[in-house]
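An example makes the point: we print one protein in full, the chain in one-letter code, the fold tokenised, without further comment:
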Amino acid sequence: MTRWLRLSSLSLLFALMGGGIGYLLLPERAPQAAGVPRVRVRGRPVTLGPDPRAQARDLARAYLREHVTIVAEERTLDRSREAFGARVDVRLLEHLLRAAADPSSALVRHHAALARGPIELPLPVRLEGAVALPLLAQLKEEVDHLPVDARIDVEQRRVIPERRGTYLDVFGTLALLDTAFTNGRNRVEAVLEHTDPTTTSEQLRDVEMNAVVGWFQTNYNANEDHRDRTYNLHLAASRVNGYVWMPGAVLDFNEIVGDRSEANGFRMATVISAGELIDGVGGGVCQIAGSLFAASFFAGMEVLDRTPHSRPSGYIKMGLDATVVYPSINLKLRNTLPFPVVIHTRLNNGLARIELLGARRTRAVTFVRKVMPRVDRFEEREVPDANLPAGTRVLTQRGIPGFRITRYRIIREGDQAVRQRWLDAYPPTMQVWRVGTGAAGAAGSARQDDHPEYTADQYLALTQPLESDDIQEVRRPGFCGTAGWMVRQGLTRALPATTAAAMTSAAAAGRTVVPSGCAGASCPVPARPAARPAARPGAR
């Protein structure tokens, strides 16, 4: 009996073991073999179809067509994901869809063992930075700006609030865009950095503008031929107008006015380069710089950085001009008064006036200029021009001798007086003739230089007194202060009568054209309706 029980037990054990081994050897069946699992891509339900490849392409196209908006303060940049550089790995997405549709796949079995609900499939997307970077760089150009100090609207007597500087971090924004592609977001806040201005509205509440502490004005040609230069004058003046110059602060002209470029609003106009008049962006800005320098000079401000022109300017006295070239040549001045000063600019009918307004006028300032007896002869150059008839001579740039001057400033304040002394040098300006070499019927033309002979008083003293807003002037023409002095000094020959007549006509018309089809210096210059003269004639 005992033996029979043992045999029965062994038989049952073997039977159980065999059954277990057989079960393990049976083909594995998926936990959800009863149906296809639910699937979502980017959190959105997807019905698996019979063609995973076509479905992957459709999902990728739909994703790439969606728009993303990058927000940078008040600016936005809206493009499709594809335009921003999003790229979907369609083959990998197809593989994921096939795996989700196969109940025997590792993906389905793993999901059944560890999770409930639908299978969440990622969208395999990447960002091509080379596509997005130019778009972000363009946005950066639109968004970036330097901090703007609070200033005063002198006409309305109100404070214009400050504005903090903003800089867009391109690569930081690019990283957020990449994350947004992965997460499926359609709005990205650009990474911005901010800098605070130096002067705030709070600091300007008690600024007084009771007196003109220094001023100067210059003439400019406001006719149609000089509209772009006039535009530049107004633009540069608007940048300094209302600027509040705090006690002890340094005025940096280039920083206030900014880059002289078309992107910064300036236009092409005549500029002085190496002593010659050429076209350049921002022509006319130096006149605002010179007027501001002169006004500051008569206010007794400290001169830190100022450079004279490479040739004397017709709109301002030698010794009071200032040339500026962004970013290499600058005008820097320090406010030496114990109170803030507000810059007020006014341009109207060919007159540019700059005033410095403050609490009170405490200084009488005198400018003295002496021209050294020795001047440098200018060279003459003839430029052949096949577009002009043979024998035609057109003076396209009038020569100016080189000057050396000594200038003084005398500042009287109370019972104290301070005298300062500087030396300036103006190199000679070459005289240029265009000489015709063409046929008698050549249809060319050339612009005649209509500048009169440059004259400058050998001795000049200008004073802005305490008791009035007028300038007291003392002038002694000396050897270079009257017309014809260059011929008398043996620096050049007298201009031909026909050329002198042409220049007179050109000055009246504001423009000179040598007519086509005529030969020789006797060709008449066609008259035009008279325009407003550029400046009052006289010694400078």
